[in-house]
TrEMBL record:
<dbReference type="InterPro" id="IPR009057">
    <property type="entry name" value="Homeodomain-like_sf"/>
</dbReference>
<feature type="domain" description="Sigma-54 factor interaction">
    <location>
        <begin position="135"/>
        <end position="364"/>
    </location>
</feature>
<keyword id="KW-0547">Nucleotide-binding</keyword>
<dbReference type="InterPro" id="IPR001789">
    <property type="entry name" value="Sig_transdc_resp-reg_receiver"/>
</dbReference>
<dbReference type="InterPro" id="IPR011006">
    <property type="entry name" value="CheY-like_superfamily"/>
</dbReference>
<keyword id="KW-0805">Transcription regulation</keyword>
<dbReference type="Pfam" id="PF25601">
    <property type="entry name" value="AAA_lid_14"/>
</dbReference>
<dbReference type="InterPro" id="IPR027417">
    <property type="entry name" value="P-loop_NTPase"/>
</dbReference>
<feature type="domain" description="Response regulatory">
    <location>
        <begin position="2"/>
        <end position="116"/>
    </location>
</feature>
<dbReference type="GO" id="GO:0000160">
    <property type="term" value="P:phosphorelay signal transduction system"/>
</dbReference>
<dbReference type="Pfam" id="PF00072">
    <property type="entry name" value="Response_reg"/>
</dbReference>
<dbReference type="Pfam" id="PF02954">
    <property type="entry name" value="HTH_8"/>
</dbReference>
<dbReference type="GO" id="GO:0043565">
    <property type="term" value="F:sequence-specific DNA binding"/>
</dbReference>
<keyword id="KW-0804">Transcription</keyword>
<keyword id="KW-0597">Phosphoprotein</keyword>
<dbReference type="Pfam" id="PF00158">
    <property type="entry name" value="Sigma54_activat"/>
</dbReference>
<dbReference type="InterPro" id="IPR058031">
    <property type="entry name" value="AAA_lid_NorR"/>
</dbReference>
Amino acid sequence: MNVIIIDDNRNFRVMLKTFLSENNYTVFEASTSDEALSTIRENPIDLALLDLKLGSENGIELLKLLREHQPLLPIILMTAYATIETAVTAIKLGANDYIQKPINLDMLAIKIDKLIKEYYLNVQNLNDDKYEPVIIYKSERMKEVINLANNVAGTDATVLISGESGTGKELLARYIHSKSNRKGCPFVAINCAAIPHELIESELFGAEKGAFTGAYATRVGKFELANHGTLFLDEIGDLSLNAQAKVLRALDEKKIRRIGSNDNIALDIRIISATNKNLKHKVDNNKFRTDLYYRISTYPIVIPPLREHTEDIPLLLKYYLEMFSRKLGKNIPIVTPNAFNELINYNWPGNIREFKNIIERAVILNNEKISTFNLTNEFSEKINLRYRRKLEEITVIKEALKSASMNKRKAAKILGISYRSLLYKIKEYKITDNMD
């Protein structure tokens, strides 16, 4: 596994590199933003350790750039200044986790191992032929959506899924793929909004080694990876007009050519696109190609926002309560009538994605009963951060106990806390010997 340490303190990098190397990680180093970006472009990095203060540079700015170039890369922010505001900002901008300096190396190792495992598990799940997307619904609005999806699944028609952020557009695309004749072939997703314009062509079509500055190895593009399967173009409305023309050409000609190559690659793929924008409006304003719009929207499906199918909330609540209770090894809590009414009456600007996060937070923060979901629009980044910290503590304690073969004194030593403190935490979080 390849880890990059991005920190301007050479002695700190050496110390961390020694520790990680002893734990069988291949370690790369960078002291500036430019060095970090260059190294990540040239090497397959599995995780980044990023210092908040990079000399005169700001680690938050580099975090933004890393998210643009590597949307899926696990990133741990390291900081000696762990304030609530900084941590909230880091998580909002895409850090997967953070750790305070001076660093507890055993805890860092647990965090790294956890994030890398999650990363590869997610990649495996996304490409697993047996992956069956679960869509929870009973409302007439969602029945219409699923009927439309079922009707088109067995064809190769292009599908355009529209809906607000968080409504489950990618989940529906996966559902269509799972019901199609291409089910056993790859489902490849790309978020067109997350890739810088100058990199989108190589991301989509691939590039030969040496095709441009920074192309140190041959890159296989998403079209090629999806061959014989389904390519999901998420947020297609964010593609530049130049990129739109190239996508249209690939769809019309059913072939692509990597940047720097003279060889054509024949394509046999199904295209599903998604957008949270009004593409017809963009067409009318000359910001989206008319020909591409009609090419990708043979079969349009609109997913309604959650506020328009609140009759699905009881089923969604049951599903996520059971899921997160099982995941955390807790009993399923009772939801009071007042708390349930909060869910029904809330506007859900973040839709099902927000709903899922709210339920997970509630299961973490409550044991036997949920009396409120704290659904104010101000919902608090501070409350949200406390929830994240609590989840982090539970996970780290469980990992330490596993590493110590359930020996609590050894686990306390790994965690750098007293035996008494660990016993208190185990009792507080109701962590049992059977943690599976």
